[in-house]
Automatic annotation (TrEMBL):
One of its GO terms (cellular component) is endomembrane system. Keywords: Membrane, Translocase, Transmembrane, Transmembrane helix, Transport. This is RnfA-Nqr electron transport subunit. Pfam families: Rnf-Nqr. InterPro entries: NqrDE/RnfAE (IPR003667), NqrDE/RnfAE_oxidrdctase (IPR050133). Its main location: membrane. The chain crosses the membrane at residues 6-27, 39-63, 95-116, 128-148, 168-187, 199-223.
């Protein structure tokens, strides 16, 4: 149980800081650049992303586990009525993952938008146009695909991610997106008061700052290994390093 909690904690830390979706994988760049002119709007966008990416992760994990993956129980039960039990066990629907995830993300955004507009009008007014724009944030699809890679094709079924790990990755990725976009908004507000040379004004200085931020976040490399050593006894760390894959949220210790 203690090892599981450490894994959960490290997955969140890695997704938020070490393998930040925006500054390490460069996904979700469009809202990162387009909605980072003011800290207030950037923070609102970040909170909306955390909310939607969590719902999308919940839906994608459930659909992958019970419908898409080879031998998924629901698909196997339906296919058993039309095939032999052996053929039904081999049905693989992961080829439909992109379509299903995009549909799930768009549907969840629309559902959340309708729910918030009906029951929380002040919050809906605060989020404004940023809530429907989350549909086009590819960082959410990226999180769904990472979760799928941790469920499908895992050599040892016991190593497949459960819902807790999937949700932790999603929330950590959303928090990392919020941290990155708020930092960028703060820098851009300061840049508005500076005498930036004309050739570097606009998108040029924004991309330069993004590159510097990405290099700054590289300083978190190896933090997960240090935290693991600090929180676990040395024999347990050595045994886990030999028998278990890295619990880093994206497949590799950084």
């Amino acid at each position: 149980m203690f090892s599981y909690l450490i894994d959960i904690f490290l997955i969140g830390v890695v997704a938020a800081l070490i393998n930040n979706f925006v500054l390490y994988y460069f996904v979700g760049i469009c809202p990162f650049v387009g909605v980072s002119r003011k800290i207030s709007t950037a923070f609102g966008m970040g909170c909306a992303v955390i909310f939607v990416i969590s719902i999308a992760a919940l839906i994608s994990w459930t659909i992958t586990t019970f419908v898409l993956m080879p031998g998924a129980p629901l698909t196997r039960w339906v296919a058993a009525h039309f095939m032999t039990p052996e053929a039904a066990a081999g049905v693989d629907l992961t080829i439909l993952s992109y379509i299903v995830y995009i549909f799930a993300i768009a549907s969840s955004v629309q559902f959340v938008e309708m729910y918030v507009r009906k029951f929380f009008p002040p919050l809906y007014k605060a989020l404004g146009v940023y809530l429907p724009l989350i549909t086009t944030n590819c960082a959410i699809l990226f999180a769904c695909l990472i979760i799928m890679s941790k469920i499908v094709g895992v050599d040892n079924p016991a190593d497949a991610w459960d819902l807790g790990r999937g949700l932790t990755l999603a929330v950590g990725g959303g928090i990392g997106f919020t941290i990155a976009i708020v930092i960028m908004a703060g820098i851009r507000e300061e840049l508005d008061l500076c005498d930036v040379p004309k050739p570097f004004q606009g998108a040029a200085i924004t991309l330069i700052v993004a590159g510097i931020l990405a290099m700054g976040f590289m300083g978190f490399t190896g933090v997960d290994s240090g935290l693991r050593k600090a929180m676990m006894p040395a024999p347990a760390v050595a045994a886990q390093a030999q028998t278990a894959p890295a619990a880093d949220g994206t497949g590799a210790n950084q």
